[in-house]
Structures are given as C-alpha cells and as structure tokens.
C-alpha cells in the first residue's frame, strides 16, 4: 500500500510544482514536458517486464528493489543540480516504479485467500482515493511552505521517509512468492517499444523549440517502421516460445481492440488536460500552488464518487451506456469550463470553476472504473494477464503522448516573444485552445465506445468479482490520470497489475 500511495501521489504532486520548478530551476518548456512525460514513458516501458520479473525472481524481492530504487531516485530528484539531472532522475524514478507497482496487487493475490481479498481491495481503494485527493494538496503545501528553503525539492524528498518505512516493513512482513511457470522476458520487444516511442515523442516535445526541423518528421515516420518491426518480431516470438511482450491475437477480440483504442485516446486527452490546467492556473492566472491545489479538490471528489457508483450500481444495469454518458459529460464539462474562461478571462475565480470541474469529474469517474472491465470482457481466461499488462502499458503510453502534444496544442499558441504583461492573456488563450482539443477527444471516445460490448459478460464470475473490486478501487485515482485494475490466474495463478 505504501508503494501504491507513493506512486499515485507522485503523479499529481509534480504537476502542481511544475511552475515552481520552471521558475527556480530555469527549466525550458521541453524540459518541463520531459519531467512528466519521461516518468510516464519509463513507467509504461517497464510495467510488463516488472511484473514478469516478480513472477520469475520473487515478488517480494523485486518489490523491495523497486521501492528502494524509487526512494533513491526521489532523493536524486530532490537534490538535482539542474533541469537535465532532474529529467534523468525522473526517468529512473519511472523505471523503478515499474518494478514496485506491478507487485502490489500480485502480492495481495498470492498472500490472501479469495474470500479475504475484497477487504484488502477495499483498503486499497481507500489508499488510492486518499492519494488522488491528497497529492495536489500535499504538493501545494510543500511548495508554499518552502521548508528549509527547499521550494519544489520537498515534493520529492518527502518520499524518503515513506520509502524507507516501506522497505523496513516490506522486508519484515511480506511473504515471498513466485509463479510456478513464469514467462520469459522479452527484452527485444521492450527495446523496440522504447525506440518507437522515443522516435515519436522526442520530435513532438522538441519540435516547437527547434522550429520543426526535417529530422523530426523523419523520426516520427521512422517510429511507424519500428512499430511494424515490433509487430513482426512479436508474431515470430509467439510462435517460437509463446512469451511475446504483446499478445497480438488479443486484437482479434473486437471488444479488446476497441477498448484499447478508447484507452489510448482517453489517456492522451488526460495527459494534455492535467498539465495545461496547472500551467493555466499558476502561470496564466498567477495563482499560488495552494489555490490551484484546492481548486482541484471538487474534481477529485466527483471522480471518486462517480467511479464507485458506476461499478456498483450503474454498469450492471445500463452497461456500455454508462461509459458513453461519461464521455459526453466530460465533453460538456470541458465546454462549460471553456465558456467560463472565455467569459471571465483573467478575472475567473475558483468558485466559477467548480461546476465545470464537477461535471468533468463525474464524467471521468463513469469511464475510468468500468473501462478496464469492458476491455477484458471478451478476453479468454488464459490471456487475462497479457491483456492486463497491455492495457497498463497503453494507458501510460497515451499519457506520455498527451504530455508531448502539449507543445503543439498549448505552447504552440503562446507567442515566442510575449511581453510579461501579456503572458497571462496568452496562457488563457492557449488553455482555451487546448480545451477545444480535449472536447474533441471526448467526442471521439464517445463514438469509439460503440464498438465496446453492450454489457461486459464474458468474464467468469470469480474473475469478475476480483476485477470489479479492483477497478472500483482504481476509479478513485482518476484525478491522477491513473487506472489500476487486476486480473490473474493462468492455471498457476500468474498475476499482474494494470496501472
């Protein structure tokens, strides 16, 4: 639970501190994007491998290595001498999070009998909800208090005592477990995924600053070639030893293919929104980190409330329509926010943002909790673990892509040589432009959802009970842009985390 809390808080706490990092560390626009996108990219690339390392070498062992590495990386972030070092430390932090996070619910699955897991998942849901709400507030408090003159550095250093406590308690109380027949690692597949994403994301993040050079377009085209090579390699590996990184046969299942498309586009939209929202409030409106953090609380509460209702009450009765209603609600909330911003400009208040944010939060809660269950509904039992791992990777990859696109849909609207007196108005205009794109993304998601099954009914009852418990818990983390879900058992009870 300590590891899950640290990871989820780290996602939201950094966004709040971005303007402070930009001011005091002198970080450029692209470096700001890499501070967030670098973490997401490293996390996405390492999730499936991290889960399999736990199955092979022991979940307790990999968990302790991961939480220890995460703690050290947090210290490196806190003591970073320059923006380049901070970006590098954040990438290491994401890679070590990919070791510790997949073990969390795997350890729960291996430790507790089925009839006790509901209580554990309930506790997990409470921890996730607490992390989602407390992350922005904790980030605001630590930045505002400026403890010992550390400014933004405190948001990373706070992980040190928590991580050390997790190490001590984990080494003492967690029981070791392994999968009897663990799959082999597909390191070539991981390398191809990372290369393809880097060829795509790096030009998007640096392109504006470098005036969109020709090599950037060549690199983005090259990413498609690498993705094609990945598909060809994974097909051969599936035939050769049956342990590919990506189980391509899953895409023959209509609900899974459609659900992956929805998850990807949804994550891109969230990646764009959360970063530009922070920049808008603090850099554009000139608000303090505390005011920005408090403004987001109604949104977090709305997400948690709607997520619980969607899984327990609404989806069993209305099925796919709940997710589609969520997409339309989010689009409506974004348009309401855009209208309020256009109406009040720099004079907008936190109170005037509450209604649009609550509408958005309710819509998001209706999507994040049941989406994973809908994606997995048609997946054969023997491929549940592979499907879960792919969902987690796609979610984080979409988030990283959204963060990269901020250079296009937000900073692309800010003039290169804007006067200080005009900066606020320029940021408000860029925010409204980005909101228009986010609204279009939500409409696209609504249309894509017609390909999802009307009702998720293909998962066996035992599996469904665990999935619903965990997906419901995960919905509480919507404000962090994170979805956690769990599927397990491939005969010998392999288990992986969707995060």
Task: Decide which structural class fits the backbone.
Answer: mainly alpha
Largest sheet: 2 strands, antiparallel
Let me know the average pLDDT. Answer: 81
Please state roughly what percent of the residues sit in beta strands, choosing from under 5%, 5-15%, 15-25%, 25-35%, 35-45% or over 45%.
under 5%
The largest beta-sheet arranges its strands as: 1-2
Give, in order, the helices and strands.
HHHHHHHHHHHHHHHHHEE
Briefly, what is this?
With 499 residues, this protein is an all-alpha fold.
Give the SSE map.
Elements: H1 2-25, H2 29-57, H3 59-78, H4 83-111, H5 114-145, H6 154-157, H7 159-173, H8 187-206, H9 214-240, H10 254-284, H11 289-295, H12 297-318, H13 320-344, H14 350-376, H15 384-409, H16 423-448, H17 461-475, E1 485-488, E2 495-498
Antiparallel strand pairs: 1-2
Helix pairs in contact: 1-4, 1-5, 1-10, 2-3, 2-4, 2-8, 2-15, 3-4, 3-7, 5-11, 5-12, 5-17, 8-9, 8-15, 10-14, 10-15, 10-16, 12-13, 12-14, 12-17, 13-14, 13-16, 14-17
Description:
The chain contains 17 helices and 2 strands. The chain has 499 residues and is mainly α. Strands 1-2 form a two-stranded antiparallel ribbon. A hairpin with a 6-residue loop joins strand 1 (485-488) and strand 2. The longest helix has 32 residues, at 114-145. Mean pLDDT is 81; it is low at 457-499.
Primary descriptors:
single chain, 499 residues, mainly alpha, two-stranded antiparallel sheet, 17 helices, 2% strand
């Amino acid at each position: 639970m300590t590891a899950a809390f640290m990871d989820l808080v780290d996602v939201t706490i950094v966004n709040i501190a971005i303007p402070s990092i930009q001011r005091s560390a002198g970080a450029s626009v692209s470096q700001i994007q890499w501070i967030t996108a670098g973490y997401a990219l490293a996390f996405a690339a390492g999730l499936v491998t991290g889960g399999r390392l736990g199955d092979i070498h022991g979940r307790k062992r990999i968990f302790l290595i991961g939480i220890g590495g995460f703690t050290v990386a947090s210290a490196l972030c806190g003591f970073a001498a320059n923006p380049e070092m901070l970006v590098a430390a954040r990438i290491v932090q994401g890679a070590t999070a990919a070791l510790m996070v997949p073990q969390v619910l795997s350890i729960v699955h291996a430790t507790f009998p089925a009839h006790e897991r509901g209580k554990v998942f309930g506790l997990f849901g409470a921890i996730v909800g607490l992390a989602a709400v407390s992350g922005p507030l904790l980030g605001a408090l630590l930045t505002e208090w400026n403890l010992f003159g550390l400014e933004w550095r405190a948001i990373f250093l706070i992980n040190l005592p928590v991580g050390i406590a997790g190490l001590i308690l984990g080494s003492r109380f967690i029981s070791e477990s392994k999968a009897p027949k663990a799959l082999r690692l597909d390191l070539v597949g991981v390398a191809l995924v990372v290369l393809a994403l880097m060829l795509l994301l790096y030009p998007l993040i640096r392109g504006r600053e470098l005036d969109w050079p020709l090599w950037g377009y060549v690199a983005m085209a090259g990413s498609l070639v690498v993705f094609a090579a990945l598909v060809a390699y994974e097909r051969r590996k599936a035939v050769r030893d049956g342990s590919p990184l990506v189980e391509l046969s899953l895409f023959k299942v209509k609900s899974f293919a459609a659900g992956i498309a929805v998850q990807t586009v949804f994550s891109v939209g969230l990646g764009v929104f959360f970063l530009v929202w922070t920049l808008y409030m603090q850099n554009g409106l000139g608000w303090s980190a505390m005011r920005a953090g408090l403004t987001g609380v109604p949104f977090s509460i709305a997400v948690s409330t709607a997520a619980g209702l969607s899984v327990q009450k609404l989806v069993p009765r209305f099925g796919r329509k709940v997710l589609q209603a969520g997409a339309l609600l989010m689009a409506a909330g974004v348009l309401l926010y855009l209208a309020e911003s256009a109406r009040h400009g720099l004079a907008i208040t936190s109170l005037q943002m509450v209604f649009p944010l609550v509408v958005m939060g309710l819509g998001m809660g209706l999507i994040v909790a049941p989406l994973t269950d809908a994606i997995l509904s048609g997946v054969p039992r023997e491929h549940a673990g592979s499907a879960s791992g792919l969902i987690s990777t796609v979610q984080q990859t979409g988030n990283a892509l959204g963060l990269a696109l901020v250079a296009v849909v937000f900073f692309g609207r800010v003039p290169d040589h804007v006067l200080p007196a005009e900066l606020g108005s320029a940021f408000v205009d860029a925010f409204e432009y980005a909101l228009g794109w986010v609204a279009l993304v939500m409409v696209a998601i609504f249309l894509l959802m017609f390909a999802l099954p009307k009702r998720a009914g293909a998962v066996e009852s035992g599996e469904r009970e665990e999935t619903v418990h965990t997906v419901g818990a995960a919905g509480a983390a919507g404000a962090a842009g994170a979805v956690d879900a769990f599927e397990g058992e491939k005969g010998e009870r392999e288990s992986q985390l969707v995060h």
